[in-house]
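Hi U.,

Before I forget, here's the chain from the pilot set. I'm dumping it here mostly so it's searchable later in email.
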Amino acid sequence: MGLGCGFWGLTAATAPLHIAVQFPRSPQKDGDGDESPLAARSRFRLNGQMNTAIDLSAKPAPASPLGRPADLAHHFMDCGALDTNLTLAPGARMAITDDFLNGTVADFAAWSMAAIVARDGMVARAAILPLGVAASKVEGRHRIKYEKLFALIEETAFADGARESAEALIHSRFRETQIRELVAELGGTVKPARKRYQAFLDVVKKLAAKRISQALFLDEFMDFTKQVAGKLDFGIYAICVDRLFVSPRIPLEVKSSLVDEVLKYPPLVRKELLTNLLASEQAPGELIRHARLSSAGVLTHDQITEIVLFTTLKRAWAAQRKAPGRPSL
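Structure:
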């Protein structure tokens, strides 16, 4: 599913989210007679425009053009240690719910780690769904390992939604009806947020065409942010803001005002958006200077130090992606 809007050269995420899940009838077994964690085949449908299947019995796909790490679970653990949102690789885009529903992330260990360390509650809840499907296909003594995993998620997950989902699955003994309820809850949260996102993209187009005032656009941006906070995949929101900062069709005055708004955001959100801007090679120099000066006026010394270090890391990741033969950071 796309992350942006047409006039930026990206595909709009136009499909309202409605997810349905189908369960396999005959699970595959591993050498010990237990079901392989990657044996269950689950199908998540996103209302009409997307009908994707996660074939968990297939061999892992080769590395994508994004340069995805061979051990995605280890990369997710690094993201958790860095107190940042999950990305598909160092310097790549942030993970979104769709990645755990359409097979982009199709690794048992990666699902497990994402459920625990994802800061984005939507992503953490999406990561639990394929785990729940796998757990629903095993019985008796073979289910113990899943119960232990979900107990660990319930106790240690960063996101409240992940802990609540894990608790619900444990109490229901991984019933398919409970998994469907969790799927419906996720869709019911994300679907309205994506509709609001689409409406905001229309406002962006009007600003680019000079059909609305800058003041009205800023009001719309703040209303959009308020309505989708905690409901829209943060990776989609971040791409939207990133494109606003670099688009030549958005006035510099508007971009500067957006920076001032970002500085008021919660620390993790502020860090992600501000360092994306400061590490960007496409953002106007004047905007980056404004961001630095404004940051110095409102952030503490420790917060500024964190911003500088994380910006440096993102620049290093970008350089590494341009020279894939270099050792990983």
